[in-house]
Structures are given as C-alpha cells and as structure tokens.
Amino acid sequence: MNLLLVEDEIQLSDALSQILIKNNYNVDAVFDGEDGLNYGLTDIYDVIVLDIMLPKLNGINVLKNLRQNKISTPIILLTAKNSIEDKIIGLDSGADDYLPKPFSPEELLARLRAITRRNGNFINENILEYQDIILNLSSYEISCKDNSIILTSKEFDIIKYFIQRPKIIVNKDDLISKIWGFDSDVEYNNVEVYISFLRKKLAYIDSSVKITTIRKVGYRLE
Ligand code: CA
After folding, report:
1. Which end of the chain has fewer CB within 10 Å, C or N?
2. Could you list which residues have their CB under 5 Å from ion ligand 1?
3. What whole-number distance in Å separates Cα of residue 14 and Cα of residue 166?
4. How far is the CA of 55 from the centre of ligand 1 (A)?
5. What is the DSSP letter of 152?
6. Confidence band of 122 (pLDDT split at 50, 70, 90)
7. Domain spans, the chain
C-alpha cells in the first residue's frame, strides 16, 4: 500500500517511516506542504498522513487543495494542536481522521487500518479484497470462489480504482483522467468497452459484484 507521509520533524518522520515500512507500507516521506501537495496530486497514494504545521504551505491548505482537485485519497491529519476548532476545520476540509500529537505508533497503525478498510480491504500488500472478489495486485488476477481470470492492465487499473471507491459514483471524466491521464484522447465509448470487458470477467468468475451504470453520470461498484 502506497503511503505519503508529510511531516517536517525529521526525527518523527524517520521513526514513523521505519515503523510503516515494517508494516508493509511503501512510504514516500516529504518535509513541507508544497511537496506534500505536489506528491498528493499524483494520486498514486492509498493513504496520506499529513501534519498541519508545515513550512511553505500548511496541512489544511494542502488538504483543501487536494480535495478541490478531486483527489479522494484518505487523509489522516497530524497535529500538535488539539483544539476542537482545529479538529472541526480539518474534518470540514475533507480529512478522514485526525490524530493529535503525541500519539503511539500503534494508534497510527490502527487508524490507518480503519481508514483503508473503508475502501477495499488490503489483506497484505499484494491482495485487495472487496465483497466476494480478490484482486491480486502483482499478478493482475481477479478471483471469486474457485474461479479466476487475468485482467489486462487497463481492466486492472479500472477495477482497482472502483474497489477503492465502492458505492461512490465514479464519473467517466474522472475515470479517463485517472486511468489514461489528462492528455489522453480516450473517449467515453472506449471506457464503455473496458467496462463491458470487466462485467464479462466478473460474470465469468461468478461474482455478485456489479458495475452499475448511473445514467448520464458514470458508474458505481455494488
Ligand atoms: Ca510540523
């Protein structure tokens, strides 16, 4: 699981990185708000741990900016401040959780597990589980009960994107920009083709998971 750590206290950052790596997270550590924002905007992270008091750009502004840019990565805010007011501003700005310093590493790990469980459930760094389907992140194999099939890389990217946003409507433009990139020439009907491949593969492995079309809006994994 890819984790972005934005924390300017080097000692704390190093200590957290070591613990997170031991717990199978792939950690990128950056030390100011500008880097935090730029790394976060790549949208390659499964979770972001974000300090509030940061040089260059504070954590709340990083958070707001990410959400304005439709980055829905779960974010845990860290802060030395523990006022109710900060907590409310943080959560109102789109944070998923809030952890006042000092905290124990075990508490951070527990919060990370809780926050990422709300999306697909990572069994380990290679396996993502959702309802009756298991997605192998290294072999691109999707399986259900005793059935399995290998996905193409785009099919894999799409189903992974859906699994991390279950029951949320994903619009086609978001899907295109996240899977193919902003500059791509991909059109809606290309997306529809991939969705229909994926539906066939979900049916083939006999999964009860469905990709539902929401008319004129997009899709939803159910
Ligand atoms: Ca700080």
Report:
1. C
2. 8, 51, 53
3. 33
4. 8
5. P
6. low
7. 2-118, 127-221
